[in-house]
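Changelog excerpt: complex records now keep ligands as SMILES alongside chain sequences, and the structure block spans every component. Example after the change:
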Amino acid sequence: MKDDNSHGAPRTVPIQSATFTNPINAEIRRAAATGIYDIRGGGAKRKLPHFDDLLFLGASISRYPLEGYREKCETSVTLGTRFASKPIKLDIPVTIAGMSFGALSGPAKEALGRGATLAGTSTTTGDGGMTEEERGHSNKLVYQYLPSRYGMNPDDLRRCDAIEVVVGQGAKPGGGGMLLGQKISDRVAEMRNLPKGIDQRSACRHPDWTGPDDLEIKILELREITGWEKPIYIKVGGARPYFDTTLAVKAGADVVVLDGMQGGTAATQDVFIENVGQPILACIREAVRALEDMGMHREVQLIVSGGIRTGADVAKCMAMGADAVAIGTAALIALGDNDPKWEAEYNALGTTAGAYDDWHEGQDPAGITTQNPELMARFDPIEGGRRLNNYLKVMTLEAQTIARACGKNHLHNLEPEDLCALTLEAAAMAKIPLAGTDWYPGKPGTSY
Amino acid sequence: MQTFDLEAQGLRQLNATLHAQADDTNQTAWEVVNPRGSHAIAVGLDAPIEVNVKGSTGYYCGGMNKQATINVHGSVGPGVAENMMSGMVVIEGDASQYAGATGHGGTLVIKGNASSRCGISMKGIDIIVHGNIGHMSAFMAQSGNLVVCGDAGEALGDSLYEAKLFVRGSVKSLGADCIEKEMRPEHTEILRDLLERGGCDAKPEEFKRYGSARQLYNFNIDNAY
Ligand SMILES: Cc1cc2nc3c(=O)[nH]c(=O)nc-3n(C[C@H](O)[C@H](O)[C@H](O)COP(=O)(O)O)c2cc1C
């Protein structure tokens, strides 16, 4: 670039601040104009150490692979083997995460049930209770037990296949929920016992227990109500994975669900999504270490989530010791959320396909995160279910391809030794050797 | 009358036996002896039976009750009748924290005092307390009625939605968005019925009504553009 001499003496060229960037400044102006923080859906958008920073080594002279298209590579997983008399057996280790009816439309919940059932996996209710659409179309349905207890009732507890006690979510460990008035239709209001059209807050803390000792008694109650049949999951956000996993197991969990900070949410403050919690990459090995320290790895199953997109991500989670994964955002995209075919309408809402995250406002052009009957009518739950099934199938095939290349006849046989890390950060967080070395920061017996 | 010895037969057996009672059971009267502060006694019942617990209980007695009448001849630990759907739970003694939490229906009567967070997030249940209630009671209470014949502790009805609160004695302080409201004839009628159901001899005219100012119902956005 030439120096600017056009105004006489040479001048310093305009330099944009790396601290006060244009998006930051725009946010300051927005805050100054409106007096309210930004609320949005989705997960952390900032770049974080993630599964992309890990690679598989594949087979070599010392490890031989399985034949790609012929030799068996199992994908099933059984959840809830510790205490439940009726554990859940899934054909694939990719489950559908809890997403609330209210945030999602009834037909979207139906599509999740259809797709998951076709693929042989489970789906999960969410804040707002269980709908007939999803119970009817989900072969295996996990019923969330949340602080708000919206729609909670013993009949649904008895007709679910597993119970998930939600302590936290990766997008907002320590935070509650929010459903803005625009989305409180008659049906949503009735299920939540609240007036129509008001902004609904979901509490961040359970109303009738605090701490791990109480949680143990709460789990006893839930088991007594349901005759000790159902697996009980405890879901935590990625905050202190070692201790949270330890305490969840101590409290009597059959399954621990661990959601990292990339995990999506229906609606939370942007400042919360971007600044609280740990990336899932940093959480998995710590949770597994906690399970191993208690002699509970595989006995209590670990489901991880937060930014899982591909079969490679799934395989990496399994190699680090998870038993299964859960997907939220990716499932919505498979259904058609943020599809560029609605670009003109995204533009009209002041956004663009891929960036649309105002799910809480209920104007979703794709008809998924809305309660508006006209928009909902755009979404076909049968087609949505088909698409989700296809996507889940692809993820599974991808994970199997990698596992076979590593010589594994079950996804659960993948192991940390199959991985290397591309960056120092990823190596330290995942406790996986940096590529080209046998070392990661903090490796026992080594110095920095 | 069927008698169940909790100490001898165990909790699992108790709840399984009570769950096995169908709508048309002839075994409509049960007595549970030796509760000894056990948790989760008579939870998830769903039949028109009467259960008399002879002694005090731990957490979540009568949790998620439907249809049944449960009388506790003693005091109860935290979360009595939590998330109750219908039926009736009567406590002769005192109740610990979170009594009637998130209850959707039915009636909870506490003849002694109730501790903090009584009626938290209640969603339609009626709670009648003969004595006093502790701090943060009726926090985020959505619907239903809470009647307190004694005094209420700090921050009553914080972030209240549409639940109606009736207090005869003093209120130490009101929580955010909770205000005193006019007692109109229809409220007196509701209260008269509740007092009768709860076996209280207090008069509706002695109570004050508290409810939501509804100022927190929507985000207050200073959007000048
Ligand atoms: C639209 C939406 C609604 C959600 N609602 C809930 C909920 O009701 N309860 C819950 O525990 N988590 C909820 N979550 C979080 C998911 O269960 C899951 O933790 C997260 O989506 C996983 O991360 P991912 O979106 O990157 O796959 C929601 C997520 C989304 C995207």
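Chain A touches chain B at residues 33-36, 148-149, 152-154, 157-158, 180-181, 192-195, 198-199, 201, 203, 207-209, 214, 217-218, 220-221, 224-228 (CB under 8 Å). Chain A has 15 helices and 16 strands.
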